[in-house]
Amino acid sequence: MKNKSALFAIAILLSLSPITLLAEISGKVIVFACSSCHGNKLKALNLSQNYINHELPQTLLAFKYNNKYATIMDRISKGYTDAELGYISDYLSGENQ
Ligand code: HEC
């Protein structure tokens, strides 16, 4: 009985970890793709912590849905799901490092 519960717990942990891992990697990998234009962790944009937490997700969604003028960010943001665009600010604000 004890062994069965231990196996059950391990099975749950194993089934959850890829999901967590994917969420953790996404922000980092996406931001890496932005670095060619904006530098490491978007440093060239000089974004404040407040902007990263509150305005960045909205700005990226606005680019994606053509609500903010862009020459290229509209095309780049369309390459990601809405959730993935949210991972960007999660990663930059220190969550999911
Ligand atoms: C090919 C170069 C390029 C890449 C790659 C790129 N950007 Fe941009 N980014 C731009 C340009 C150019 C602008 C100005 C808006 C426009 O013309 O599209 C911009 C604007 C922005 C802005 C708005 C800044 C402001 O002050 O209004 C944000 C935020 C941003 N980019 C985030 C990102 C993120 C996040 C990624 C990665 C998913 C990324 N960018 C990838 C070129 C790039």
Question: Which features does this protein show?
Answer:
97 residues, mainly alpha, Cytochrome Bc1 Complex, Chain D, domain 2, 4 helices, elongated, binds heme C
Which ions, cofactors or small ligands are bound in this entry?
A: heme C
End-to-end distance, in Å? 38 Å
Which range does the strand content fall in? under 5%
- Unreliable spans are none
- Share of helix, binned: over 70%
Largest sheet: none
Q: Looking at this structure, what is the CATH superfamily?
A: Cytochrome c-like domain
Number of helices: 4
| Cα-atom radius of gyration | 17 Å
Tell me which CATH architecture applies here: Orthogonal Bundle
- Derived from helix and strand composition plus strand pairing, the structural class reads mainly alpha
Which fold name fills CATH's third level, the topology?
Answer: Cytochrome Bc1 Complex, Chain D, domain 2
Number of domains: 1
Tally of DSSP β-strands: 0
Order of helices and strands: HHHH
| Shape summary | elongated
- Any idea of the CATH class? Mainly Alpha
Q: Can you give the mean pLDDT?
A: 85
